[in-house]
Amino acid sequence: MGELLNLKDKIKKYYKFSPSEINGLIISILVLAFIVSFREWGRGDQINLGLGLFNLFNAVLLVTLTMLVRESAHRIVALHIGLRAEYKMWTWGLLLGLVFAFISNGQIWMLLPGGILVHHMAGHRLGWFRYGLGYFPMGIISLFAPIANILLVIIFKIINHSINSPLIDKIIVLNIALAVWTMLPIPPMDGCRIFFASRLLYIFSFFSIIAASALLHPYFNINVWLAVIGAILIGVLGWLIYYLFLERFLWQGPAAKMK
After folding, report:
1. Under a CB-based contact definition with an 8 Å cutoff, are residues 68 and 2 in contact?
2. pTM for the complete prediction?
3. Rounded CA gap, 238 and 245, in Å?
4. 146 vs 50, which has greater pLDDT?
5. Helices assigned H by DSSP within 104-186
6. What is the DSSP letter of 117?
7. What's the pLDDT band for 5 if we cut at 50, 70, 90?
8. Cβ atoms within 10 A of the Cβ of 149, count?
């Protein structure tokens, strides 16, 4: 109970976004929304400005919700640990996404919005985190953003079971795409921090999220909870294969490879 009250107090004091973060989020949301709505600016080869702006507006709403949930996951988990997460837009990633949108005519959503900077909060060093910034807590903070994406997919998948809305299908695909792209081990994506925190944690989370993204995709009519269980089992299998055939030899050193 005390930890919850402490976390509530931290959120109240430190959750708000700085002006530079807000600017970065606005630019990221607009670029991602344009990528997501790239193919919806008309019918066939005919461009319809009114239809395009309407679809862009819908995409902005969907991306805004998704990005706020992602960054809230970063911030709340960081505050729980005793750190502060700051959103940092990745300009080159957004430009690369725009290039792929034009080259593929909107067929490929390359969603690389940015990553986080993690700051030490000297006044909140009680608990398991104490001194300095370690790779593992930063990896845990990063992991909760793609997990938040998958949780949103699960929620909207359950809602869409009775509504069957194309707009909900779109936000499901959006969150799947963001979860997959941000799990890539390239800086400043979340996957990079998770990989350096723990290779075994990265392998398990990577395979689980990829499997969940595939099984929960609107194209497949699979029960949500079976998809979640299947994704976890695939994550465990991927972890086991990686450990047995690679990681245990890395731990034993070069001598083990000579046997």
Report:
1. no
2. 0.89
3. 11
4. 146
5. 135-163, 166-182
6. E
7. confident
8. 28
